[in-house]
Amino acid sequence: MFFIFDKIVMAMAAVRFLSATIEFSAAMLMLYFNRVEDAFKINAVLALVGPTALITVTSLGLVGLAGKVSLMGMVSIMLGVALIFLGINKL
């Protein structure tokens, strides 16, 4: 099926898989409790999962690219991630 030899890629995929599992479990809990109040509380907890996964996967990617991307490229990537969070907070 998939042959993954790079440990960084494996770790990035594992974090995303864990994040997806948490999101799916939360959706199932929302359906199980079937109340807006409970679903809202579950959604509030999920607000921590998404950004944490994004930061973790991005950090792993930067570690993997450390020797392959120029300093300006790394700064551009980090600036892009910072702009994503700035845009989210301005909503």
Q: Average pLDDT value?
A: 89
Portion in strands: under 5%
Helix and strand sequence: HHH
Q: Kindly provide the radius of gyration, computed on alpha-carbon positions and rounded to a whole number of angstroms.
A: 17 Å
The best one-word shape is: flat
Q: Could you give the distance between the termini?
A: 41 Å
Q: pLDDT below 50 for ≥5 consecutive residues: which ranges? A: none
Give the % helix.
over 70%
Total domains: 1
Q: What kind of assembly state do the chains in view correspond to?
A: single chain
The helix tally amounts to: 3
Q: Find the structural class using helix and strand composition.
A: mainly alpha
Number of strands: 0
Biggest sheet features: none
Write the layout of secondary structure elements.
Blueprint: H1 7-33, H2 36-65, H3 71-89
Helix pairs in contact: 1-2
Q: Would you give an account of this structure?
A:
With 91 residues, the chain is mainly alpha-helical. It has one domain. Helix content is 84%, strand content 0%. The longest helix has 30 residues. The termini are far apart.
Keywords, separated by commas or semicolons:
91 residues, 3 helices, single chain, mainly alpha, flat
